[in-house]
Amino acid sequence: MQTLNKQTYPAGRRFDHLPEKIVQFGEGNFLRGFLDWMIQRMNEQELFLGRVVAIQPTPHGKVVPKLLAQDGLYTVALRGFANGEQVDRTEVVAAISRGINPYADWLEVLRLAENRQIEFVFSNTTEAGLSYFQEEYAANRAPLSFPGKLTAFLFHRFQATAGDPTAGLKIFPCELLENNGDLLKAIVMQLAKDWRLPDAFTEWLQSHNRFFNTLVDRIVIGYPKENSEEYEQRLGYRDELLTVGEPYHFFAIEGDETTAAALPFRQAGLNVFWGDVKPFRELKVRILNGAHTMMFAVAYLSGVDTVLQAMEDQQLRRFIQRGMEQEILPYIALEQAVKTNFARSVEERFLNPFNRHQLLDLALNAVTKYKLRVLPSLLDAVKTGTLPAVLCFSLAGLMLFYRGIQRDGQQLVGMREQQPYSIRDQEEVLQFFQNVWSACQGEKEQVQQLVRAVLGNESFWGENLLQIAGLEEKVGQYLRQMLHDGMRAALTRLLEGDGA
């Protein structure tokens, strides 16, 4: 079977003449199945006429070599339902011109900063990637963090263009953080200060570059490992970057008409909204993403592997629905009909028979995700004098999921029955859980000490959760039940009202 590239798929060359206009920090499944798919749509209609350069965000990335081997080509498969009709289509995306590993070729990234045709920066480096990280600046070496790379990129552009006001960039972080554009700008400004970069650069950065708050929404499950051979037969070629997602997509950007004209998403028929993103963010992050984070550990440790399997499991579906309907929806300040309709659409998306959305993929950086997606609902419930049982149970499940039995390089290895699984998070998170679990053999006081350590870790949650009356006892009891009786038995007690 031939591999997808411009030799085997000559039509992939049709956009080779277009200039590189976008720098994209991140080359993972989501950006390729969401933003780059949108750029392709605009290019096909001759509305944008530009290509993307994808920058590898971490030292251990594996996508850029595959992008280079396939000449930037890959396939997006959209499967599900749209407007009541079944959708099952594939399309080759040729929006990415090349990928760059900045840790091996930082000078090429800097040369890209000198290109005056570059107008836009997009990113998706997970919530954990959009954070302040204190590091040293070296002109000939890539900073480790995404904000560090962006700061160094912008500084080089400032130097190469002699501070030309027209050389400023429009920057769109797509990480699922509230006010993500404002946050990224604040981190970049702080790094400029840390690195003692010239005041003239700070002024140029402030006045001539724009950071936009955004919200993205599409379930992209990535490479279909279980039925890759089926796709190869269907497509007639091998594509190691094949990306499967749902037809639904939504992109909200806090921008003006001038910016909208430069990025004509809507003219291309794409579901993009320019305006206040806050109402959309509240719905999506708490309901869609919140439900993902709420369910992943409980469902995975109950023996299922995908979101669809969890929804098809009667017990797990009751758990998910109870959490969404009784413990998340009541604390979102929007009209009931709006909330209910969105929640119903989320359940339909979870039940998409074509999506094999792996729970282990939802587990990446789960501590940060719980803080941002689930904890706000829990805290809102506490303000009303309620400890929400499902959300507390899910927190106990998260703690159990992080029970590693050994290290494997950058990961912890956990065990589900006799099956090992990878626990992927930042090093300080993995080390913390490795330490607290090594001191816990399951005795009541040991479990309670572990729960105290986790809830009291302010670096995880931004506050000391031990101050919430009853939380330590409730989570501790749930965790002991999971350890002693198994996840299924503990879940049964919860749903039958015999939990903590």
TrEMBL record:
GO BP of this protein: D-galacturonate catabolic process; mannitol catabolic process
Boundaries of every Mannitol dehydrogenase C-terminal domain copy: 276-482
EC number: 1.1.1.58
A Pfam family recorded for this sequence: Mannitol_dh
Keywords: NAD, Oxidoreductase
Domain of life according to the entry: Bacteria
Molecular function GO labels: mannitol-1-phosphate 5-dehydrogenase activity; tagaturonate reductase activity
Domain called Mannitol dehydrogenase N-terminal: residue spans: 20-262
Top-level EC class as recorded in UniProt: oxidoreductase
UniProt catalytic activity: D-mannitol 1-phosphate + NAD(+) = beta-D-fructose 6-phosphate + NADH + H(+)
Keyword Translocase carried by entry: no
PANTHER family: ALTRONATE OXIDOREDUCTASE-RELATED (PTHR30524:SF0), MANNITOL-1-PHOSPHATE 5-DEHYDROGENASE (PTHR30524)
Protein name: Tagaturonate reductase
UniProt organism field: Brevibacillus fulvus
